[in-house]
Amino acid sequence: MSTALLVALTLHVAGLAWWGRMVRPQWKLLGKTVFYLGVSAALDLWVGPWALVFIVGHPLLGLAGHVWICRTHGINVLTCEPRQRYLDLQTSWARARDADGS
User: Fold this and answer.
1) What average pLDDT is seen over the chain?
2) I need a surface site. Which of 66, 75, 84, 86 has the fewest CB within 10 A?
């Protein structure tokens, strides 16, 4: 296994361990795992060490978005509490995306 894929796997497992319980619906975890590790492996084959830009950048962008949205809506960034507000925010965001066809 290449170093880039080891970094991708480590970051992904750490992210799932910390925030995986908050992913709704739970079946999305499989899709997120396949996408992230699949794209990471493909980039590692095609561009070598430059794949680390995606491997590190993708989770960092996700974390930055999580922090910004949680702070904007008065939700604790680390614990996602109040939990019901966090879940309501996820639900309303998903409905808004469905309504506009995104």
Assistant:
1) 87
2) 84
**Alpha-carbon gap, residue 88 to 92, rounded angstroms:** 6
Q: What is the pLDDT of residue 97?
A: 61
Alpha carbon distance 25, 22 (integer Å): 9
Ordered by start, the domain boundaries in the chain are 3-99
Contacts for 20 with CB less than 8 Å, ≥ 6 apart:
29
Task: Single out the residue of 94, 79, 77 nearest to residue 24, CA to CA.
Answer: 94
Which tokens go with 44? 């590692």
| CA distance to 12, 36, 62, per residue, from 82 (Å) | 25, 29, 20
Neighbours of 12 (CB within 10 A): 19
What is the spatial distance between Cα 4 and Cα 9, in angstroms, rounded to a whole number? 9
